[in-house]
Amino acid sequence: MNNPILTPTGLVEAFNELQSSHHNMMVKQGFWDNRKLVRQTFSHAPFTLGIVENAMDCQCMALIHTEVSEAVESIRHGSPPDDKIPEFSGPEAELADVFLRIMDVAQDRKWRVIEAVVAKIAMNAGREKMHGGKLF
Predict the structure, then answer these.
(1) Angle between the N-to-C axes of helices 113-125 and 90-109, in degrees from 0 to 180, rounded to the nearest 10
(2) Angle at the Cα of 92 from the Cα atoms of 86 and 93, rounded to 5 degrees
(3) How would you class 93 by CB atoms within 10 Å of its CB: exposed for 0-12, middle for 13-18, buried for 19 or more?
(4) pLDDT 10s digits, 68-92
(5) DSSP string, 43-91
(6) Element housing 34 (H / E)
(7) In whole angstroms, what is the distance from residue 20 CA to residue 32 CA?
(8) How far is CA 78 from CA 35, 70, 75, in A?
(9) 15, 21, 25, 132: most buried, per Cβ within 10 A?
């Protein structure tokens, strides 16, 4: 591996840089204004803040699910070019949206998602064929 980005450490560093940049753009565009308001409102009540943060995290997960569903629908319709970035198919664009939403929430919550991906890849490398007989 001559490309340092292809190493697990290089991948993590590059991904985290991209993730931070993307999240900062989303913050500037106002997508995190509600979360900021919630944090200010409930800063004196950590228990309540935790409950509301959990609900907002679940909303983020639902939005990720929505992007996956949009990819499925695009496949069901023959994987046509995406309407916003037509050089890519609908499934490609929707899966890109999945990554973007994951990066956005992971940056805000300080979740180490890319590190978990690297760890999962290493763990899966040592598993038995088809992880013990799963069909997919």
Answers:
(1) 110
(2) 60
(3) buried
(4) 999 999 999 999 999 999 999 999 9
(5) TT-HHHHHHHHHHHHHHHHHHHHHHHHHHHHHHHTT-PBPSSSTTSBHH
(6) helix 33-41
(7) 14
(8) 37, 13, 5
(9) 15
Residue 50: both structure tokens together: 């935790």
- Residue identified by tokens 């907002």 is 56
pLDDT category at 101 given cuts 50, 70, 90 is: very high
Instruction: Give the separation between CA 106 and CA 99, rounded to whole angstroms.
Output: 10
At residue 12, what is the residue type?
Answer: V
- 4-25 pLDDT, tens per residue? 666 888 889 999 999 999 999 9
